[in-house]
Prior knowledge:
InterPro entries: Cyt_c-like_dom (IPR009056), Cyt_c-like_dom_sf (IPR036909). It holds the Pfam family Cytochrome_CBB3. By secondary structure, the protein is an all-alpha fold. Helix content is 56%, strand content 3%. Helix 2 crosses helix 5.
Amino acid sequence: MSIYRNLGGVALAAFCLVSLPIATSLAQDAEQESEAVQEDGDAAELSPITFTAPQAIGGGGNYARSCASCHGAELEGSAGPALSGANFSWLDRSVADLHAYIQDLMPADAPGSLSDAQVSTIIAFMAQKQGMEAGDEPISTDPADLESVRFGQ
């Protein structure tokens, strides 16, 4: 029995020795990529979000069906965090990041179930609830188009 315990300890130590350099390398790569993105981001400011009133209205329905049970009818938060106000964590960040987060991880009970168009309208609704005004230019339903768009004003 003690041989198996010792072998397990040796295997764990070997795994750690092999994994540590790989993890360190990945962390350094991610840090370098983050610095490059930050440098690029300084040169190219993010544009404010645009959306139409019909998109925000449609997003309100999508939000009510898919988000309100956790985030509250008025985006005030309940089981999930608040999605409006000063503590909203996506202000001044790329809308593409927010879109990807919602697309991949929300709603919590059915992640990945929302279409690009549904996610875009939910973001339009969230922007309107944050106090941003609808205009003539719609929010894109293509996440790639949202890379240079920020959520904040």
